[in-house]
Amino acid sequence: MELEDLEPRNQTKKPKDLSNWSFEDLEAYIAAMEAEIVRAREVIAKKKGVASVADSLFKR
Protein backbone atom coordinates (compact mmCIF):
# COMPACT_ATOMS: atom_id res chain seq x y z
CA MET A 1 0.00 0.00 0.00
CA GLU A 2 1.28 3.44 -0.93
CA LEU A 3 0.96 6.51 1.28
CA GLU A 4 -0.98 8.32 -1.42
CA ASP A 5 -3.62 5.55 -1.23
CA LEU A 6 -4.50 6.87 2.22
CA GLU A 7 -5.04 10.46 1.08
CA PRO A 8 -8.50 11.67 0.05
CA ARG A 9 -9.07 11.28 -3.71
CA ASN A 10 -11.00 14.51 -4.24
CA GLN A 11 -8.51 16.75 -2.52
CA THR A 12 -8.37 20.17 -4.19
CA LYS A 13 -4.90 21.15 -5.36
CA LYS A 14 -3.62 24.69 -5.09
CA PRO A 15 -3.47 26.35 -8.54
CA LYS A 16 -0.02 26.95 -10.00
CA ASP A 17 1.31 30.50 -10.06
CA LEU A 18 1.51 31.22 -13.79
CA SER A 19 2.45 34.89 -13.54
CA ASN A 20 6.17 34.30 -14.06
CA TRP A 21 5.83 31.83 -16.95
CA SER A 22 6.86 32.81 -20.47
CA PHE A 23 4.42 32.81 -23.39
CA GLU A 24 6.07 29.65 -24.73
CA ASP A 25 5.77 27.87 -21.40
CA LEU A 26 2.12 28.89 -21.06
CA GLU A 27 1.32 27.66 -24.57
CA ALA A 28 3.05 24.34 -23.86
CA TYR A 29 1.17 24.03 -20.57
CA ILE A 30 -2.16 24.68 -22.29
CA ALA A 31 -1.36 22.12 -24.99
CA ALA A 32 -0.46 19.51 -22.38
CA MET A 33 -3.64 20.18 -20.41
CA GLU A 34 -5.79 19.99 -23.56
CA ALA A 35 -4.17 16.65 -24.42
CA GLU A 36 -4.96 15.41 -20.91
CA ILE A 37 -8.59 16.51 -21.31
CA VAL A 38 -8.85 14.55 -24.56
CA ARG A 39 -7.34 11.50 -22.85
CA ALA A 40 -9.79 11.77 -19.93
CA ARG A 41 -12.76 12.11 -22.30
CA GLU A 42 -11.64 8.97 -24.17
CA VAL A 43 -11.55 7.02 -20.90
CA ILE A 44 -15.01 8.33 -19.97
CA ALA A 45 -16.39 7.27 -23.36
CA LYS A 46 -14.92 3.77 -22.97
CA LYS A 47 -16.36 3.42 -19.47
CA LYS A 48 -19.79 4.59 -20.62
CA GLY A 49 -19.65 2.07 -23.46
CA VAL A 50 -18.78 -0.78 -21.13
CA ALA A 51 -21.51 0.27 -18.69
CA SER A 52 -24.03 0.42 -21.51
CA VAL A 53 -23.14 -3.08 -22.70
CA ALA A 54 -23.29 -4.41 -19.14
CA ASP A 55 -26.68 -2.78 -18.57
CA SER A 56 -28.08 -4.31 -21.74
CA LEU A 57 -26.82 -7.77 -20.75
CA PHE A 58 -28.30 -7.74 -17.28
CA LYS A 59 -31.65 -6.11 -18.06
CA ARG A 60 -34.40 -8.48 -19.01
Topology record:
Elements: H1 23-58
Could you walk me through the main structural features you see in this protein, from its secondary elements to its overall organization?
With 60 residues, the protein is mainly alpha-helical. Helix content is 60%, strand content 0%. The chain is built from one helix and no strands. It has one helix at 23-58. The N and C termini lie far apart (40 Å).
Indicate the mean pLDDT: 86
Q: Given the structure, what is the number of helices?
A: 1
Low-confidence stretches: none
H and E string: H
Oligomer: single chain
Q: What is the molecular shape?
A: flat
Structure characteristics:
single chain, 60 residues, mainly alpha, 1 helix, 0% strand, flat
Brief sketch in words of this structure:
This protein is mainly alpha-helical and 60 residues long. Helix content is 60%, strand content 0%. The chain is built from one helix and no strands.
